[in-house]
Structures are given as structure tokens and as C-alpha cells.
What we know:
This protein has 90 residues and is an all-alpha fold. The chain has one domain (6-89). Helix content is 88%, strand content 0%. Helix 1 runs antiparallel to helix 2 (50-89). The radius of gyration is 20 Å and the shape is rod-shaped. The termini are close together.
Amino acid sequence: MRMHHPAEALRVAVTKKISMSMQASRTRLSGLSKELSRQWQDCQQTWRDTKSKEFDASYIQPLLDGVDNAVTAMEDLDKILKKLRHDCEL
Length: 90
């Protein structure tokens, strides 16, 4: 088994912690987005006028799209961090 330099061990530990924190944040963000979407669907059952459609197009859909993009970026970054951690452990 290869001994790690203290700085290398610290880097691996920090990378692992960031990855775990990012995973928790990604899960929370995704869950909150789904809850917002459910609440918005409920609201649309009673609010069905032109302003509702404008609000959906101007605010809700761009927000949900942005969250989807952020979650995808976080997944990609998590893969990079896992590879970095693996490479540092070799």
C-alpha cells in the first residue's frame, strides 16, 4: 500500500467531502424543484388565465430548466471529482 503525502491525503479528504456535499445539494435542489412543479400544477388548476400562462413562460419554466441544467452540471462535476479522488489515491 502506497503512503500518501499529508497534503495529498488532505486533498483526497477535501475532494471526497465536496463530492458528498454536492451530492446532497443536488438531491435537495432536485427535490425542491419537483415540489415547486407539483405546487405550480396545483395552482394552475384554479389559475388558468392569460397571466398564468405568461407567469409560467416567464418565470416557472425558465426556473425549472435552469435547475435541470444545474443538476446536470453538478452530476458532471461530481464525476470529475470522483475521478480526481481516484487518481489521487493511486
